[in-house]
Amino acid sequence: MSPPSCWKWPRTEHIGGVDRFNVLFIGAGNIMFGSPEGPWNHSFRLEHKLGLRLKVVALIDPAVERANAILEKKRDSFVLSAYQDTRVFKTLDDFIENMQPKDKPRAIIIGSPPMFRGSLQPGRDIESQIFKHFPGIPLFVEKPIATGAKGEIKEAYTIAKTIRDTRTICSIGYMLRYLKAVQMMKQIIQDNNLTIMSTIARYACAYEAIAKIDWWDKSKSAGPVIEQGTHFCDLSRYFGGEVDMSSVQAHSLEWHENAGQLSKLTIDESKILPENRIPRVTSATWKYESGAVGSFTHVVALQGTNYSCELEVYADGYLLKLVNPYVQPVLHVRKPGDDFEQTHTFPEDDPFFSEISNFIDVIEDIEEDPESATILSNYEDAVKTYEFTWAIREASERSRKVQTSVA
Ligand SMILES: NC(=O)c1ccc[n+]([C@@H]2O[C@H](COP(=O)([O-])OP(=O)(O)OC[C@H]3O[C@@H](n4cnc5c(N)ncnc54)[C@H](O)[C@@H]3O)[C@@H](O)[C@H]2O)c1
Fold it and tell me: Ligand 1 within 6 A of 28 CB?
């Protein structure tokens, strides 16, 4: 079934031209250059969006060899022009010391691990360093905005305030908001003036494919809800609105419990301190400030590579059910007057391209159709999602303590 004819897709076209569009990359890892783990790859989307205009002025990454190896591959391909003058630096300070005026970035893409950003602490304050040296330069920041201690969330709000006060263009990598299926759900809600009653989200990852040991270590990744489930916590907020943080309750199945044993781990979990090992299941419920009720379950149980993720949004007479948003999004819509769901598919939809495309269009302030390019996730909103995921983690840890003390 095709979407309603009134529907406006997010803008996703390539822009032609010859003028330089300088971009600075912070982090030269999977999100920037792709990996077998998933479809993410910002450099690829930028190459397609900007074509010959793209000039990656520098890669900032302490893993200099990794960055150089990637550059070598890029220079050996048809996107050579974007990378032929790219330089690699270990830190932003090194880049600034060596920067020539022609290298001043027009956009900065931050894809370093979240443990190195989102705070005001030295070494984890890349945003503040950027504000100092490149005030007002647009930022694209990967999710989650941080993974530091919970007490540092207020520092993230300070960063959000600076971004707001300086009117810096800033987009956060919650790409699922850009899915055509998600925007269609929004349109149905708006067209029918619906009040959301409940959101029910489930995120089951394929753990066998997650080979990065830091992901399995709460002291590094802050745990699977904060690092990964954050996408669906964010989508829940996108539909349900602000969460009453004091209402969040949660339970977890832990790694040491009988039901939590996994047979296909590709990492050696014994290398992680027991107290830092991640839960296999986290299940939470909460009230939204509107009175609506939300729930979310994150599961580390599936093998293979495909995740199984679903989000249901209920309103009077309506069920909007989003299935498989990562691989092949399908939207099932049940409406008043019909007991059966209508099914919509969205072949070839690429939310990673849409989020980058909208970011660039907002920077360029395309005049012919200024309405069509929109940033759907800003820094302050992303801090709220981050705070929410911390509330879920803490609630599950509290409930474990209660269980342990009762036993
Ligand atoms: N939206 C998505 O679906 C999605 C997918 C993958 C990753 N991500 C996010 O992207 C971010 C990076 O993940 P990744 O998979 O690319 O990790 P990665 O480990 O593959 O790459 C991170 C890179 O950053 C470098 N780095 C470390 N410290 C740095 C610093 N201080 N400054 C600059 N670079 C530094 C590392 O050397 C590494 O090369 C994470 O926040 C992750 O959650 C999002």
Answer: yes
Q: What is the secondary structure of 325-385 as a DSSP string?
A: TTTS-EEEEE-TT-SS-EEEE-TT--HHHHHHHHHHHHHHT-SS-TTS------HHHHHHH
Tell me, in angstroms, the distance from the centre of ligand 1 to residue 89's CA: 16
Is residue 53, in this structure, part of any structural domain at all?
yes
* Residue 255 shares a structural domain with residue 379: yes
Residue 25 Cα to ligand 1 midpoint, Å, equals 11
Question: Tens digit of pLDDT for each residue in 383-406?
Answer: 999 999 999 999 999 998 776 665
pLDDT digits (tens, 9 = 90+) for 31-58: 999 988 788 999 999 999 999 999 999 9
pLDDT tier for residue 365 given thresholds of 50, 70 and 90 = confident
204 shares a domain with 159: no
Which mutation among 30, 89, 121, 175 tests ligand 1's pocket best, with the greatest number of atoms within 8 A of CB? Answer: 30
Cα(7) to centroid of ligand 1, in Å?
Answer: 34
Domain end point (choices 112, 143, 172): 172
Look up tokens 């150089």; give the residue: 68
Give yes or no for residue 114 CB within 6 A of ligand 1.
yes
Considering the domain architecture, whether residues 325 and 212 belong to the same structural domain is answered as: yes
Q: Could you give the CA distance from residue 249 to residue 243 in angstroms, rounded to a whole number?
A: 12
Distance, CA of 149 to CA of 207 (rounded, Å): 25
Q: Is 357 a domain residue?
A: no
CATH number at residue 193: 3.30.360.10
Tens of pLDDT along 244-288? 999 999 999 999 999 999 999 999 999 999 999 999 999 999 999
Is 362 inside a domain boundary? no
Ligand 1 mutation pick, 112, 172, 178, max ligand atoms within 8 A of CB? 112
Residue 9 has pLDDT above 50, yes or no: no
The C-alpha atoms of residue 392 and residue 297 are separated, in whole angstroms, by 10
The closest residue, in CA terms, to atom 4 on ligand 1 is: 31
Number of domains in the chain: 2
